Amino acid sequence: VPFKQHHFGGCVTDLGGVTSHTAILARSLGIPAIVGAHTARQMVREGEVVIVDGVHGVLIVDPDPLVLEEYQKRQHEHESQRQKLKRIRGTPATTRDGTAVDLHANIELPQDIEQVRESGATGVGLFRSEFLFLNRGDLPGEDEQFEAYRHVAQAMRGMPVTIRTLDLGADKTVNSAARGGPNPAMGLRAIRLCLAEPQMLRIQLRALLRASHYGNVKILVPMLSSVSEINQTLQFIDNVKQNLDEEGIAYNRNVPIGGMIEIPAAALALNVFTKKLDFLSIGTNDLIQYTLAIDRTDEEVAHLYDPLHPAVLHLLAHVINGANKAGVPVSVCGEMAGELAYTRLLLGLGLRQFSMHPSQLLGVKQRVLTTSLPEITSLTQKIMRADDPMKTRDLLAKLNVA
Ligand code: PEP
Ligand code: MG
Q1: Which atom of ligand 1 is nearest to the CA of 284?
Q2: Is 49 helix (H, G, I), strand (E, B) or coil?
Q3: Which residue in the list 11, 21, 104, 194 is annotated as catalytic?
Q4: Each residue of 345-397: pLDDT tens digit?
Q5: Contact, 209 vs 256, CB < 8 A?
Q6: Which residue, of 36, 42, 203, 352, has the fewest CB within 10 Å?
Q7: Residue 341, Cα to own-chain centre: how many angstroms?
């Protein structure tokens, strides 16, 4: 049975950080999760009742009846909050002062599209296509990939569907393309692996371009760091297009090609990205990992993972500003985009497009609807100038009241 069709009530791991792909997958299963618990496997025995409080990161083993009752109450409240939010599903995400914001969804597999449509998302901002390759013995061929991409493109009925080319490597590997290396996060991952394994990339690009004929498909390239990688990738796409032309196969000639900004070098050397690409998407999970030199899968350093670190905020501001000035659409598709605590801060930095797990979308929309951009400008600027983490957190709390 595919992983996603199992019925799990919750998920606890001893390893991993909150932005590891284990955590992202748990989010997409819609279940409470705790990662990096260290000793959970020693503490929990087969058949025991456990409470997984994913909000506070608390695991309660064999709870007494009063505790269990309290948590059942909380679970119901949580559920009724979610039900209430459904009322704004069809409401356009517009700030109080009338600025439109795009709220898109992240997906891992074609079947996630059901939930995306229920969430009221106005597009798919990130389809992590590599999940088609995981948990199986073989690699999906061109036709299988084409069907998957076309399914999503058609289901979204003309809304943008941003499909990311393979981001294999690091904490997502398939046996046939395993190239671990001494430090996988900094090794042959994503577009690097693809350029080293051109056959895999060629098959995927053919499938993507063919699917572009059936909907509003955009192609997003992960882990770009330099102009030569951009050029090689664009050249590669041109070659695949030529082949399709020769074979008389239909595709959208103007399919937009975008790049993930998730390596500090890309953020700092932004000009070449805005010049050569049609859109950008900031992968904060990796951007934070590489900026702060914190392995996102290593729970030993998870406490150092800090989206509010001034270095991170300045990189974000730089990319959002630079893209806005160049007139190149930019979104954030890392976990930061779905966290309510950061919605206003990102709006204040000029972000107008967010992509997140569908379960987070209505909460974020609610926050957008209650935000007035003129009112948050000065606090946002103060946060950017703050150099004391306590002060930053105080200011952020102020930004988020009301
Ligand atoms: C990111 O790095 O923020 C991102 C969206 O990509 P992934 O989490 O798949 O690495
Ligand atoms: Mg990434």
Answers
A1: 3
A2: coil
A3: 21
A4: 999 999 999 999 999 999 999 999 999 999 999 999 999 999 999 999 999 99
A5: no
A6: 42
A7: 16
Give the closest residue (by CA) to ligand 1 atom 8. 285
Q: Quick check: helix, strand or coil at residue 335?
A: helix
Residue nearest to atom 3 of ligand 1 (CA): 283
Predicted model pTM: 0.92
Q: How far apart are CA 78 and CA 34, in angstroms?
A: 17
Active site residue 151: no
Please name the residue ranges forming H helices in 96-226. Answer: 113-119, 142-155, 190-196, 198-211
Task: State the residue for tokens 């306590």.
Answer: 390
Strand, helix or coil at 269? coil
Tell how far the Cα of 35 is from the centroid of ligand 1, in angstroms.
17
From the list 104, 194, 333, 357, the catalytic residue is 333
The two tokens of residue 336 are 């930061």
Q: Kindly state the average pLDDT of the residues 242-267.
A: 98
The answer to whether 255 and 209 have CB atoms below 8 angstroms apart is yes
Query: Which residues form ligand 1's pocket by a CB distance below 6 Å?
Result: 126, 128, 167, 262, 283-286, 333-334
Dihedral sign, Cα of residue 351, residue 357, residue 255, residue 233: positive
Give catalytic status of residue 314 as yes or no.
no
How far is the C-alpha of 105 from the C-alpha of 228, rounded, in Å? 30
pLDDT band at 7 (very low <50, low <70, confident <90, very high): confident
